[in-house]
Amino acid sequence: MENSAQRRLERVSGHLLSPIEVNNGLSQVLIKSGQRNNEEEEGDPVVIGGMVLDIHATPSLPLNPRTTTPGKVHYVLGGVARNIAECMSKLGTKPYMISALGNDMAGKLLLEHWNSASLSTEGIMKHQGIKTPTICNIFDTEGELAAAVASVEAVEKFLTSSWIQQSKQNIFSAPVMMVDANLSLPALKASCQLAAESNTPVWFEPVSVAKSRRIVSVVKYVAFASPNEDELIAMANALSHENMFRQIERDTTRRGSVESLFQFLKPAILVLLEKGIKIVAVTLGADGVFLCSKGPNLVRFSLDRTKKYGFSGQLYDNVASSCPSSRFSGALQIERSSHLFSVHFPALPASVVRLTGAGDCLVGGTLASLCSGLDIMQSIAVGIAAAKFAVEGEVNVPSEFSLDTITDDARSIYSAAKILFHQSML
């Protein structure tokens, strides 16, 4: 059967690629084909996944087992998909959220905040029979997660294929759809199939090592994936149907250079790319991000349908001028003669308070930037800048972002980005 990418007429940087060019591998990312009626209203990005109440417990002294420890306990609005969507909204994009909440205290807190942000609740199921997902996180004195207990069964039980189907028009008109791996396999597959019907690019957020393996059922639909190192290894093992990749031993690998870390992860990255994922963003915590693609269009990739107004428009103007696309124009010639292209984006030093929202804000910042019209390289820089904001606060998503600070940090990150590796994958 003819590959879906081969059936499309794809557009990259304003240049229409013929089916022959697509077959030759010159277009490596899923972007909108422009098949919709021109009079149809442009949609908002769709985010599907969990909305969770997080209980954060932070000790004042080192934790001791089998006894209580003095400290502070906070209720924090969380959930991977919810955090990503909120971050996007704080950066000027209005995501359409598909999720499920109960009528209990946790559900009311989450829904009240969503209404206060003037975000659509149409896609959020509300039912008294639902026990709103709740997670209790226990941190150490350094802000690192020491242990956690999650009660999130409602996401898989109530966020069903039939409920998601009711928002299919939103998915059809969306510039991009983000799904988190908290979804059940049937719901995950149904979401991705709906996106495929309208060529809506899919971003897969793995959530955890265990749930990251759900990529196997939907990999053919996924354009973007954002695993950390451990999730990357788990996904590569699941996709290759054998445990040929081992987890990182941080005490040894971390003592080496960024280049040595990339060489360690490269075989696993290649598995994801060879299975059809177009862009892999490996999140590395304090070491930044490896942005990797199979093919020639990583440098110039941007979404086809974008909106520029308000904060989002200002973000686009500021970052586009501060982080010029010409920064990587010399890499285009390199890309034309290679099949693997990777760039390392460093993180910036931060005064760390809490790490739980960093990865979600990285993805949210990247998606919001793509939806404003920035390219993937500029967007990743903004995502890392948003993550820095997140780790310096008590909550998962900052109450607001400073446009000037985001712009300055994105410029520093973008300027320090370095091409790591390019070679034929044959």
From TrEMBL:
Entry's Gene Ontology molecular function annotations: hydrolase activity, acting on glycosyl bonds; kinase activity; metal ion binding; pseudouridylate synthase activity
Domain of life of the source: Eukaryota
UniProt name for this protein: Carbohydrate kinase PfkB domain-containing protein
Coiled coil: none
Keywords: Kinase, Metal-binding, Transferase
Carbohydrate kinase PfkB domain mapped to chain residues: 46-295, 341-392
Keyword Transcription: no
PROSITE patterns per the UniProt record, alphabetical: PFKB_KINASES_1 (PS00583)
GO cellular component: cytoplasm
Record keyword Transferase present: yes
